[in-house]
Amino acid sequence: MCQTRTVGEFAVSAGDYSAVVVSQGAGLREVRHAGRLLTESPPVRPDEKPPLSAGLVLAPWPNRTADGRFVFDGVEHHLDITEKDRNNANHGFVRTVEWSLYDATERSVTLGVPIGRHPGWPFDLTLVVDYTVDAATGLTVTSTVTNSGDVRAPFALGFHTFVRAGDAPVDDCTLTLSAAKTLPLDPERQLPQGDPVPVDDTDGDFRSGRALAGVWLDTPFTDFADTDGRHVTTLTDPDGRATELWTDTGFRWAQVFTADPDHDQGFPGRGRAVAVEPMTAPPNALASGDDLIVLEPGQTWSGEWGLRHRDSAA
Predict the structure, then answer these.
(1) What Gene3D superfamilies does the record point to (predicted)?
(2) Residue 1: which pLDDT band, with cuts at 50, 70 and 90?
């Protein structure tokens, strides 16, 4: 069985890889390779919400829904406003609740939660997330969502993952992101403002790698290059050692965010930090329908993403 550090906290390992997962929000608290951090590791208790939602699952929608309003199958729904200063419903329902333990071994932990009915959400879904570490391939996160109700249901999924290249300061690292487009956002409400635009000849082009010194981002990226059925993003330290975040092609989006004290959102103990958040759909997808997953009663959807260490010679 996996090691239980405290109630609701699970440590798994295989070879040089290890990870810590908590039951609140099914949060990924840290991933390491040979002791070197591949994610930020916030110093909080298992039952505390981590800073800036680090490592939490975002469902049944990631990011923002404008005014908490969406129309599905001809019916208008009004979600609770959780980002009051921007009048948005943000990041779904599951990131602050206690998930149930489905299974645990030395290498894996599986947690699940019913996404039951909430104000403005008359749909019954069940979400299961499995975190597995492998000595050769690192961490793999497998998510499965099932429509357990009797009507069609919309769904989108994200993970608020802060990547880290060991102890290297973010400003000493290079981000390589294979996305060919970004989605323009209204700077006041962080909502989509038009269609995705090419990154060519812009500051949003990270396809060949770009140093993060002085860069501030809170940007949705899409149109990723397909590398053997995966979208790959890397954060590389000055010695060429990289933390690689990959997703399957079902995660068509990633929100990249730089925590920054100069923007009143520093990451505790680090100051500057970078999140690469895999998402199946863009901001405001419940309202726009863009890349929204629709599940019939009894239907199941599954997707994978993961993290691994890559040496400079790899």
Answers:
(1) 2.70.98.10
(2) low
First to last CA, the chain: 32
What span, in angstroms and rounded, lies between the C-alpha atoms of 85 and 83?
6
Q: 21 near 29, Cβ under 8 Å?
A: yes
Of the CA atoms within 13 Å of residue 25, those in its CB half-sphere come to: 25
Percent of the chain with pLDDT over 70: 97
The torsion angles phi and psi of 240, rounded to 5 degrees, stand at: 90, 5
pLDDT digits (tens, 9 = 90+) for 15-24: 999 999 999 9
Cβ contacts of residue 31 below 8 Å, gap of 6+?
A: 17, 18, 19, 37, 38, 39, 138, 139, 307
Half-sphere exposure of 290 (CA within 13 A, CB side): 17
| Segments forming the whole domain that contains residue 292 | 3-310
Q: Is the peptide bond before 60 cis (omega within 30 degrees of 0)?
A: yes
pTM for the model stands at: 0.96
DSSP state, residue 202:
S
Domain total of the chain: 1
Check which CATH number belongs to the domain holding 113 and give it: 2.70.98.10
Closest CA to 246 of 193, 176, 294: 176
C-alpha 208/C-alpha 195 separation (Å) is 24
The string of pLDDT tens digits covering residues 257-282 is 999 999 999 999 999 999 999 999 99
* 35 φ, ψ (degrees, to nearest 5): 85, -10
